[in-house]
Design brief:
Layout: E1 7-9, E2 14-19, H1 30-38, E3 42-46, H2 55-59, H3 63-78, E4 83-89, H4 91-102, E5 109-113, H5 134-139, E6 147-149, H6 159-170, H7 174-177, E7 181-183, H8 184-200, E8 208-213, H9 221-230, E9 235-240, H10 253-274
Parallel strand pairs: 2-3, 2-4, 4-5, 5-8, 8-9
Antiparallel strand pairs: 1-3, 6-7
Helix pairs in contact: 1-10, 3-4, 4-8
Length: 275
């Protein structure tokens, strides 16, 4: 059964839509959401289709379903906000970029947090690095019941927080901590999405704040540089040196909140001045 985990925090008429990652949960965006709300923004954490339930719930969906969740949430937010910024973590960053490419009318700016086009971080086993083959496996019907299980450090540098999150995840609380593994066929969908987004990066004209951990254990800095070098909009880089992949909850989350709030306010102010 899929548990509801979306959240909304009130603010002014500048909105920020937060998008979690593959097998993740809106909870991983909640602390950033609270920080942005304290800075005055209206914030919504969307729950992607098929998430916060079982593996079967997730496998019943495709990347198009995940993207539709984001587009629908942004459309609703635009009805009450003058400007909408979309920020995502990991695969959520790809979905945010996809929305910016497809719907420039909805997106004033993008927060690209720990973008993951490829699982090439230092903690990824060599077998998982071959996961680009998974779309072919899915077409052939191979591996529907197989997963790459999460392993320490679970994207978290802070050891106390890591212990808390891993306990929730391994106890099966997918609404709080996500699934303990990445199903092969869900990863196959993600890799199809990543190829589409990579191809469409030159269509992203909205300003982008690209934040990435220098020692990201899941996705190397090359993922961030790919976005920096290919999008058409102006870019600001934020490199975090005391975090791993989950930068929205790890040690430098407050640094991320302050940078995002300042970036989004600057962009919104520029747009108002030009109107």
């Amino acid at each position: 059964m899929i548990a509801p985990a979306e959240f909304t925090f009130p603010g002014d008429r500048t909105g920020v839509l937060l998008v979690h990652g593959l097998t993740g949960t809106p909870t991983e965006m909640r602390l950033v959401g609270k920080g942005l709300s304290r800075a005055g923004f209206t914030v919504h954490g969307v729950q992607l289709a098929g998430h916060c339930g079982s593996e079967d719930d997730l496998l019943a969906t495709t990347w198009q379903d995940w993207y539709a969740s984001v587009e629908a949430a942004a459309t609703r937010m635009r009805q009450t906000c003058d400007h909408v910024f979309v920020a995502g973590l990991s695969m959520g960053a790809l979905l945010a970029l996809k929305l910016a490419a497809e719907r420039p009318d909805l997106v004033s700016g993008v927060g690209v947090f720990g973008a993951t086009f490829r699982y090439d971080g230092w903690s990824i086993p060599w077998k998982a690095k071959l996961s680009f083959l998974l779309p072919m496996f899915k077409k052939l019907g191979i591996g529907r019941n197989r997963s790459f299980m999460e392993e320490p450090p679970y994207g978290i540098r802070d050891e106390r927080l890591r212990a808390q999150v891993s306990k929730q995840m391994l106890q099966g609380d997918s609404a709080a901590a996500g699934l303990p593994g990445n199903p092969w066929h869900a990863l196959a969908e993600m890799f199809v999405l990543s190829k589409q987004v990579e191809r469409d990066l030159p269509r992203v004209t909205a300003p982008c704040l690209i934040a990435h951990a220098v020692e990201d254990d899941i996705a190397s800095l090359g993922n961030a540089y790919l976005v920096r070098d290919r999008v058409a909009g102006r870019v600001k880089m934020l490199l975090l040196r005391d975090s791993y992949h989950m930068i929205t909850i790890d040690r430098e989350r407050n640094v991320l909140v302050e940078a995002a709030a300042a970036f989004f306010r600057d962009v919104a102010g520029t747009m108002r001045a030009a109107a």
